[in-house]
Amino acid sequence: MKILLLNDTIISKNYGCQLVSHSIRKVLKEVYPSATITYQGMKSFSKSSEDYDKVIINGEGSFGHRFKLPGGFQRHMMGVIKHYIAIGTPTYLINCSIQATPDEILEHYETLSKLEVIGLREPISYMYCKKLGLTNIKLFPDLGTAYFEEETIANKTLDFCFGLGAITKMKDKIEKPLQNYINVINKIAEEGYKCAFLDFPSNPASDLNIAGPRLHPAIKQITGGFEKYYDAVKTAKYNVTGRHHGMVMAFVGKTPSASFDSNMWKTEGDQMLYGPNGYFHFAANNEKELYSFIMENYANREVDTLKLNDKYTRLKPYFKGHIECTLDPNTQGMESMLNFDEIAKDFKELYYLEPKKYGLQ
Predict the structure, then answer these.
(1) Which residues, listed in sequence order, are joined to residue 69 by a DSSP beta bridge?
(2) CB of 311 within 8 A of CB of 133?
(3) Which residues pair with 37 in a beta bridge?
(4) Please, what is the Cα angle at 104 between 99 and 105, to 5 degrees?
């Protein structure tokens, strides 16, 4: 069997893109041990070879804020998807969040509906696609959950891991809440808690580029790749992040996470799937209230960890689902495990995500 994997992100500096691409390789080898697999990045596609038995598209960075940008998914991938559907090659879109507007989705609705499976990685995107009438959708945890082997750290040596997120793309607009957040981190470190700040390369700057010079010297600064990130977060008693894959790696490391908004509704969806372990709207944070929020969550960590361990056990059978569903069409998603009435109710309260814009008010 010959498989083409498109939108490979292995060369990206972003830790989430690295994690997903390594996990795709690992799980593809397990599910298709004798297959010949070709990996191509989003901008490197060539039609020189068309005799693939299956085409699998990594949904990372697909139907989100960059969808219509010059270097985005619409320009570089939609024609490719249409090409393979037209010649009858089974084509799958996996491990994606979808937050393009209804008009943008409807423009490509026919193509999306002809995919064998659209594998979604958090429940808000699933709820949205179902609202739009797509029936070829399945919900699984992010494929990054399948990369690391299960382990339990009996003695967690860090009290906190902290990080930033895609919110830093708006650095000039969030300077005050950003400084509030850093002040809270420094205060916690000054009180004697063992803290680490985890880097996460991004555009236009990595998290440590932005926060590092402002951090208390007692805070350990950790960089060096997604595996270093995971090695740190799994040893923490509590994690605070605005990174979707920061949430994913903390979940796999069995560390409860408080989170804040990203450039999509990923981290909100993560709390609905992996949590809930606490959430705040970054731009509206107040230093005193944020400190109390984080410390209250930290005090609750043992209860949250027990809940997380139970959630891990229940979700583990679905970790490889994004790839398994490309082999077996009867692969069940985990959507039946969730209460979408509650998810819809919670989502409506997230005013800054503009539920009305997506028909989810």
Answers:
(1) none
(2) no
(3) 3
(4) 70
CA 282 to mean position of chain CA atoms: 18
196-227 residue pLDDT tens: 999 999 877 899 999 999 999 999 999 999 99
Q: Reduced to 3 states, what is the DSSP secondary structure of residue 184?
A: helix
State whether residue 235 is helix, strand or coil: coil
* Contact between residue 92 and residue 327 where contact means Cβ atoms under 8 Å apart: no
Phi, psi of 278 (to 5 degrees): 110, 140
CA angle centred on 14, ends 185 and 266, rounded to 5°: 70
pLDDT value at residue 49: 59
For residue 284, the Cα-to-chain-centroid distance in whole angstroms is 23
Nearest partner of 350 among 296, 299, 292, 276, judged by Cα: 276
Rounded Cα gap, residues 143 and 124, in angstroms: 17
Taking only the tens place, the pLDDT of each residue in 132-156 is 999 999 999 999 999 999 998 889 9
> From CA 311, how far away is CA 329, in angstroms rounded?
25
Q: Which residues contact 3 (CB under 8 A, 6 or more apart)?
A: 28, 32, 35, 36, 37, 38, 52, 53, 54, 55, 56
Global pTM value: 0.95
Q: What is the DSSP secondary-structure string of 80-120?
A: HHHHHHHTT--EEEEEE-B---HHHHHHTHHHHHHSSEEEE
Query: What pLDDT does residue 44 have?
Result: 63
Angle at 248 between CA 245 and CA 251, to 5 degrees: 150
The total of other beta-carbon atoms located within 10 Å of residue 88's CB is 7
Mean pLDDT taken over the chain: 93
Q: How far apart, in whole angstroms, are the C-alpha atoms of residue 287 and residue 125?
A: 31
Say how far apart CA 361 and CA 348 lie, in whole Å: 6
Mark 170-208 as b/e (b = at least 16 C-beta within 10 Å).
eeeebeebbebbbebbbebbeeebbbbbbbbbbeeebbb
